[in-house]
Amino acid sequence: MKTDIEIAQEADMKPILEIAESIGLNEDDLEMYGKYKAKVSLDVWNRLKDKPSGKVVLVTAINPTPAGEGKTTNTVGLGMALNRLGKRAILALREPSLGPSFGIKGGAAGGGYSQLLPMEDINLHFTGDIHAVSTAHNLLAALLDNHLHQGNDLNIDPRQVVFRRVMDLNERALRNIVLGLGGRINGVPRESGFDISVASEVMAALCLASDLMDLKARFKKMVVAYTYDGRPVTADDLKAAGSMALLMKDAIKPNLVQTLENTPAFVHGGPFANIAHGSNSIVATQIGMKLADYMITEAGFGADLGAEKFFDIVCRYGGFTPDAVVLVATVRALKNHGGVSKEKLGEENMEALQKGIQNLEKQLENINKYGVPVVVALNEFPTDTAAEIEYVTKRCVELGAEVALSQVWAKGGEGGEELARKVIKAAETPSIFKFLYDDDMSLQEKIAVICKEIYGADGVTYSTEAQRMLNTYEEQGFGRLPVCIAKTQYSLSDNPDLKGRPRDFTVSIKEVRLAAGAGFIVALAGTVMTMPGLGKTPAAENIDILADGQIIGLF
After folding, report:
1. Is 16 within 8 Å of 32 (Cβ atoms)?
2. Is 84 a residue of the active site?
3. Sorting pLDDT into bands at 50, 70 and 90, what band is 160?
4. Is 277 left (phi over 0), alpha (psi -120 to 50) or beta?
5. DSSP code for 239
6. How do residues 190-214 score in pLDDT, each as one tens digit?
7. Residues 37, 39, 94, 487: which is the catalytic one?
8. What DSSP character marks residue 264?
9. Considering the entire predicted model, what is its pTM?
10. Model confidence pLDDT, tens digit, residues 40-59
């Protein structure tokens, strides 16, 4: 069996200019990054903005397991299948972080015969967007510490600096650090730490901004510290927004690539859905909507995280709503949610399947709360039995959801045609989208609604500090912002060990952070980490490059 990278390296790619021309873009719209990838100028929006928009389809999933669900694989396969059926489909996905690529999660370019190309480039540095995010973020951090060192005219309390540094690797040793050691010449000593770059507020602002000037305006609002008398200090106070925007002038432009079957794809922005809002950029999605009949986008991790944040944050700022949702699941993953170990997932186990399918049932309930038609994509594995497939299909139908067997990993677009037909039907079905909560609700009420309605919790508890900061944010006028809850992706609850559909639990909010520039409040639940660590055997140990330039070991 060929590996993902072997399949990708044997693919017949078209020049990216040819891909661009197929969707109405020309050479003047592009900034080439080699032969097979390009950035798209935001100037194209001026001639596209008045055109009718295509349908928006969001792809999400059940809570992820070690068994794998194939959400990105099915997103790519669905786009290719729609094109096979004569529809003009464009994809809009996030950029992979180097952290997971060299860790254990892997990349974010799909798999098998349903991949984005050039796969190696996309998973390794790509066009440098995430590096630009890291640099802009750390420039602000450097200007902040320099201000403290140079006399602190803004009267910043070093104990109330809330802006950390970032890097795009998994590095647990940097989660908590002390800065400024070694004497007065080295700055003001204080505690701080690192987050992974995709958790940066700069990344969130990039993905939620409408253009470069909007991005700069968002940078100005970013709160980095508080004064001794409690006044918030912003990036604008530090005169940092202009230089930060300069560093992002290319990163704001969407990246255009293609699939194995030459379907156009925008890959832009990379926030994780467990610690950020988990969607690609609004600018990429909006441009794609004007160029396509169907704009297929993806939200990170399960529907309790990525889809909820797409609905309640991205749709609020983007001004668009999905016409249909695809919920990806596998028999293997459902059995894992039912208590079966990864080693025994190839064995038929109807009892575990019946228990684990409750996770899918809850995610369907969650999507239905927003009023959007949903299609379940049952991602087929060779070990799935006829009885298992029949049971999942029957249960989905009983719950009022269309279901399609997806074979895109093995067959590419051809294996997704059944799914594509049902998505077309769902997207044509009249629906009325609704948000989960109103802007006027308090921050605490918004958190409670998400935890109770989406996660299924009985209630929410807050640390003393989290409660204090929520009250402070309300007093400072941030109460109308949407909420981004950071929690484990492995469970509907904030406890990663509670699989399936947990009941009789509360969500514990340990910390609350203000992302005023991005435009939301971050509530950290349970023991979620904003800087991941490497596993015992990181993927980096098996990745290599040969003398002829061939990359091996990358998935």
Report:
1. yes
2. no
3. very high
4. alpha
5. T
6. 999 999 999 999 999 999 999 999 9
7. 94
8. E
9. 0.95
10. 999 999 999 999 999 999 99
